[in-house]
């Protein structure tokens, strides 16, 4: 039986293409795509936002639309919940937190300036800090005393609201008064001095949305300072130390 060269070539190409597709399907990217489609619990699909590779062969990082994350094998049968660390030459590195940093910076970049209470210096801006704050928090008041020095160093302070005891607390009402004020920065400073505010708290304001954003980004208390690269620094930090963390010399 005579077999033409064209037939042989066609068969060879089909075999090569099939093998290529099989390799692609078995690649980490292919496994991640299939995992995103099959992840379910009790027959209910999970709200998967993304699935990405990890340095651990056969395990993938799963990010849900709720902001929660965990690790799964390629079949979606075994899950690990917690942070993934790399033990390398620089010691323990929290790879999970590194991922959170990028997402945190991206989410905060979506918050328009009109919804922030901003303190800027007169000179050139060299860096920007986002601070989740609550005027009933003593350490927030202490940090606010550092704002003039931060501004002198060229560091802008962008406040977002985070009523630490919830939206039904007095702190939430005060924050709403600040965001409803015609001069929010002045109202913020007054509230941080524990002066009473007389303005309304029922305007259309972003306080509740920012509170939920903070929870989503891992804020657990105030003040919560977010550096430009998305790193979350909890608690009060003096101005000079913050400047050093930003690579700014006084």
Q: Structural class, judged by helices and strands? A: alpha+beta
CATH class of the largest domain: Alpha Beta
Q: Biggest sheet: strands, sense, closure?
A: 5 strands, mixed
Terminal-residue CA separation: 87 Å
CATH superfamily of the largest domain: Glutaredoxin
Helix content: 25-40%
- Reported by name, the CATH topology of the largest domain is Glutaredoxin
**Number of alpha- plus pi-helical segments:** 9
Strand content range: 15-25%
Number of domains: 2
User: SSE string, helix = H, strand = E?
Assistant: HHEEEEEEEEHEEHHEHHHEEH
Strand numbers in spatial order across the main sheet: 9-11-10-12-13
Mean pLDDT: 88
Task: Please tell me what the overall shape is.
Answer: globular
Low-confidence stretches: 12-24
CATH architecture of the largest domain: 3-Layer(aba) Sandwich
Please, what is the oligomeric state? single chain
Protein model, in words:
With 250 residues, the protein is of the alpha+beta class. It folds into two domains: 15-100, Disulphide bond isomerase, DsbC/G, N-terminal (Nuclear Transport Factor 2, Chain: A, Roll), CATH 3.10.450.70; 116-245, Glutaredoxin. It is 39% helix and 22% strand. The chain has helices spanning 5-26, 28-38, 95-109, 138-144, 147-152, 170-180, 184-192, 207-216, 239-245, and strands at residues 40-41, 44-45, 48-53, 59-64, 69-73, 79-80, 85-88, 91-94, 117-119, 127-133, 155-161, 224-226, 232-234. Strands 9-11-10-12-13 form a five-stranded mixed sheet. Strands 3-4-5-6 form a four-stranded antiparallel sheet, with helices on one face. Strand 7 (85-88) and strand 8 (91-94) form a beta hairpin. Helix 6 (170-180) packs antiparallel against helix 7. The longest helix is centred in the N-terminal third of the chain and has 22 residues, at 5-26. The protein is globular, with a radius of gyration of 25 Å.
């Amino acid at each position: 039986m005579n077999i033409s060269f064209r037939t042989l070539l066609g068969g060879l190409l089909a075999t090569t293409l099939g093998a290529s597709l099989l390799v692609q399907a078995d690649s980490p990217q292919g496994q991640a795509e299939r995992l995103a489609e099959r992840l379910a619990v009790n027959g209910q699909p999970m709200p998967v936002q993304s699935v990405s590779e990890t340095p651990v062969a056969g395990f993938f990082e799963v990010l849900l639309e709720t902001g929660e994350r965990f690790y799964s094998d390629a079949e979606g049968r075994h899950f690990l919940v917690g942070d993934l660390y790399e033990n390398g030459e620089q010691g323990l590195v929290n790879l999970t937190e590194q991922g959170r940093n990028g997402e945190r910076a991206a989410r905060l970049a979506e918050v328009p300036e009109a919804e922030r209470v901003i303190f800027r210096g007169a000179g050139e801006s060299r860096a920007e800090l986002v601070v989740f704050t609550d005027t009933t928090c003593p350490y927030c008041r202490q940090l606010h005393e550092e704002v003039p020095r931060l501004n002198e160093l060229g560091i802008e302070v962008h406040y977002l609201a985070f009523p630490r005891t919830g939206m039904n607390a007095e702190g939430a009402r005060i924050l709403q008064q600040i965001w409803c004020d015609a001069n929010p920065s002045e109202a913020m400073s007054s509230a941080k001095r524990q002066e009473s505010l007389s303005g309304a708290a029922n305007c259309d304001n972003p306080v509740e949305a920012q509170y939920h954003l903070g929870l989503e980004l891992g804020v657990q208390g105030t003040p919560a300072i977010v550096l430009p690269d998305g790193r979350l620094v909890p608690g009060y930090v003096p101005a000079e130390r913050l400047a050093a963390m930003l690579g700014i010399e006084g």
